[in-house]
Amino acid sequence: MALPAFEHTPLDSIAATSARVRASFLSHKTRPLEFRLVQLRKLYWGLKDNADLIIEACKRDIGKPTYETHIVELGWCMNDIIFMTNNLARFAKDEKAQDIPFTNTFVRPRIRKDPVGTVLVIGAYNFPIQLSIGPLIGAIAAGCTAVLKPSESAPHAAAVMQKIIAESLDPSCYTCIQGAVPETTALLEQKWDKIFYTGSANVGTIIAKKAAETLTPVTLELGGRNPAIVTKHADPRLAARRLLWAKHLNAGQVCVSQNFTMIDKEMVQPFLREMKIALEEFYPQGARQSPDYSRIVNQRQFQRLKKMLDDSNGKILLGGTMDEADLFIEPTVVQVTSTEDSLIKDETFGPLLPILAVQDLDEAIKIANEVHDTPLGIYPFGSKAETEKVLSQTRSGGASINDGFFHASIPTMAFGGVGSSGQGAYRGKASFDVFTHRRSVTSTPAWLESLMDVRYPPYTASKAKK
Ligand code: NAD
Known about the structure:
- Helices cover 42% and strands 17% of the residues.
- It is an alpha/beta fold and 466 residues long.
- Helix 3 (51-62) crosses helix 4 (66-92) and helix 9 packs across helix 10 (268-282).
- Bound molecules: nicotinamide-adenine-dinucleotide (NAD).
- Keywords: Carotenoid biosynthesis, Membrane, NAD, Oxidoreductase, Transmembrane, Transmembrane helix.
């Protein structure tokens, strides 16, 4: 199948492109709902018509199984568009302002939903279509114009998205810039009304600093280091299967996957037994032969993961096979003994599953708060009282009780981090809201002048009495 070629956008064209997209916003072209709906519908058909290219691109970039591409990339975005087009009129409608003192109700206070303006969307590689097109859907729906900068680490997917955007959308309003650090740096020099960034916290810091120079608002969807906790009252089979699912998808290259699992000392052996069974059930011929298992995105990430495992003082209990030529890393369970271990200190973002035995739930909560007090997700397995205790004594962007990151797989539920795992949220209505300015508006009727008179000087004694 002939995939379009990935080509870096010439650096000297970036300023003009962003100025063109800004001028289109200022021409008010994207304001009418009908325009936005047409663009969203065109994007839907662009995705559908290029489904085969998307599937092939995701396969080449990250070895993504077709089934997963259908669910988490293509189908995800198409459903998102259906949701947005079905609900756009409701989302965009003015809201009556709430909690208004009676005397102010005569000026009809309301909230208008205005587009924030021209936005830059920067995507990550692991869900290359969803993490780029998802925010773009929100931007189009909100009436913004937008430039998308997909991740260069998934070049085939980036090139297919560029083709779809160029062929489907109004080119004066939406466009794609391809490239890596130099191109993104050039983009950050331009004027934006919002920057929506998905990726690592390190790069998120660069984006936020640059944006702060011009007081440009940012939404940051950042990295994980998410803890899972398995108490002595958890069901070990459920915990093993669900946590393996959360680490096998995309070969663990998922921001919301658990980074490490703390297990009550009594539950370690039952959990490991079940994990071994789950691995055999998921991959009867082994993960390597399975068509349902992805690959690591590139050599750099493969080497990073290999080094992490080499540096670990843990004991490999299951898996451990790697093949650089094939960018394959087997799901690998490692028993570690310290939170200083390389597999816990940093985000693995790969199929390495460190487990740490703990004395009890209190110790697990203490460690969770010490390792990263605001992770993207937390995953407690245990009784209702135990899992509620975890929620009430920790913070995180989201949480799934008795599951790995299930909360993050609900496409219409707001998704985002907290503290250093991110700021702002999107998906469902939140995708519209994140690109919308809630503009407070009042309208003072002429007949109110006699009452309004109290605000004008001179501030006479009789006015003070009113
Ligand atoms: P990354 O930060 O390396 O790259 C993301 C984007 O930033 C790319 O488009 C890249 O071109 C750009 N970029 C990289 N270096 C830059 C620099 N110096 N200046 C300007 N731009 C730069 O992230 P990644 O490797 O694509 O993704 C992995 C990270 O993203 C992990 O930490 C993961 O947890 C996180 N992530 C978060 C979410 C979320 O929704 N919270 C989703 C996916 C991935």
